[in-house]
């Protein structure tokens, strides 16, 4: 492994940490997670499909994570 490989690994770790920090902040504030002009789910990080955003432009979660959150909210009051 040379210096370039080590630099690439360090950069990837930094990017992953930055994304995790962004995602945590978005979850806490219930705000959209936008990466490179694309909205991502604040829970799983997947891209929120255009059809979902067309139907619910305010969406911050993909449909699967929204369903999970609603089930959890119903159970915990």
What does this structure look like?
The protein is mainly alpha-helical and 77 residues long. It has one domain. The protein is 60% helix and 8% strand. It has three helices and two strands. The protein has a two-stranded antiparallel sheet. The termini are far apart. 10% of the residues are buried.
Q: Which structural class fits the helix and strand makeup?
A: mainly alpha
| Gap from first CA to last CA | 52 Å
Report low-confidence residues grouped into runs of 5 or more.
none
Number of strands: 2
Strand content: 5-15%
Query: Average pLDDT value?
Result: 87
Rg over CA atoms, rounded to whole Å, is 16 Å
DSSP helix count?
Answer: 3
Number of domains: 1
Q: How do the helices and strands line up, and which of them pair or pack?
A:
Layout: H1 3-29, E1 33-35, E2 38-40, H2 50-55, H3 63-75
Antiparallel strand pairs: 1-2
């Amino acid at each position: 492994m040379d210096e370039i490989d080590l630099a690439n690994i360090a950069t990837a770790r930094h990017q992953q940490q930055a994304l995790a920090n962004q995602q945590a902040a978005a979850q806490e504030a219930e705000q959209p997670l936008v990466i490179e002009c694309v909205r991502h789910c604040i829970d799983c990080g997947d891209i929120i499909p255009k059809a979902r955003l067309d139907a619910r432009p305010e969406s911050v979660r993909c449909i699967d994570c929204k369903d999970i959150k609603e089930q959890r909210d119903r159970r915990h009051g």
